[in-house]
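User: quick one - fold this with arginine bound?
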Amino acid sequence: MQKEKIALAYSGGLDTSIMIKWLKDKYDADIVAITGNLGQQKEIEGLEAKALSTGASSFHFVDLKQQFVEDYIWRALKAGALYEDVYPLATALGRPLLAKAMVDVALEENCTMLAHGCTGKGNDQVRFEVTFASLAPHMKVLAPLREWEFTSRESEMDYAIKHNIPISVTKKSPYSIDENIWGISIECGVLEDPMVAPPEDAYQITTSPENAPDTPTVVEIEFVQGVPVAVDGKKMEGLDIINRINELGAKNGVGRLDMIENRVVGIKSREIYEAPAATILHFAHRELERLTLEKSVFQYKRHIAQDYANIIYNGTWFSPMRTALDAFVDDTQKPVTGMVRLKLYKGSVSLLGRQSPYSLYNEALATYTEADSFDHKAAEGFIQLYGLGLKTYSEVHPVK
Ligand code: ARG
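Assistant: Sure. Structure tokens for the protein plus arginine:
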């Protein structure tokens, strides 16, 4: 009889390497290892050989980069989604896409179970499993890290040695790092003390602001309906835009974030993020919105941004609430077309200028020169009526 098959989210690290053997034994099943590419720099070469030599019956590599940019990152950018006003959500945005890619392979390969290597106290288990439940409710979900016997890296190594599981002997970084093109998340080690400043070696891609060039980088980013389309006058694919802005930002020390955040599972955790492109593009996008959005839309949209960030963070991407908010956001983005000129300099991003064919900035109304076209007389009557309610109130309740 054919064995049952388990689809496993595979990274090639120690956890998921020994997980192949552990799952095979425990469930007497074949393991289908799946790795998704979200634009991480980590070596992808050799992963297939590694998965197979570790005992997987097949290996799937799914290139998700373009889909990640177009269907996930750009939506988050248009919405202005920054979790608790800071985190651009790189890790959180990648999870539903990885989970969906896994389900696709699992269905194709007739798997009956889905397994991931997330810990039992993090957000990622929630994101994976909520997505699995939406897309493949009939499949059994396995989270070995929540139940297996290993309590340390050493005990995992012992298991690997005992079962001849080839593991790379490279010295493990003291940090736990998750990476994709929208950003890098770094935690553990000395970072667990919120009073300890992140050591320089915690940062993976950014130059420290102190060591950044003494001459600033000026960059122009063009948007069409809220989506970046060109850098310095050159039209580019989304992926290339993010890579380019990451490069310029990293060189100038832009995009380092240090945050205490509220996890879904009730824990406050401290995480360091490096997200040069996300930081710069969110900044540029918001500045263009200031120029082009009508006042009440601009102000209302800030609430939507928070709700949207919570949806991403909390793992409910595949939900009617998210698609409903997308419809709202897309409608707001119709005039968000134009160009923003920025300066990147020693860790900061600042604004040099902005322009749009849909600019609502009217110089004739704004100016304090002779060219002024604003009707000052009209202000008088406006203020009378605008303040009338409070004037009446204070007659009854005098302000002390
Ligand atoms: N705190 C971030 C989130 O919940 C990142 C989680 C993964 N972090 C890591 N260093 N492996 O989305």
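One thing worth noting: The chain has three domains: 5-177, 180-355, 371-396.
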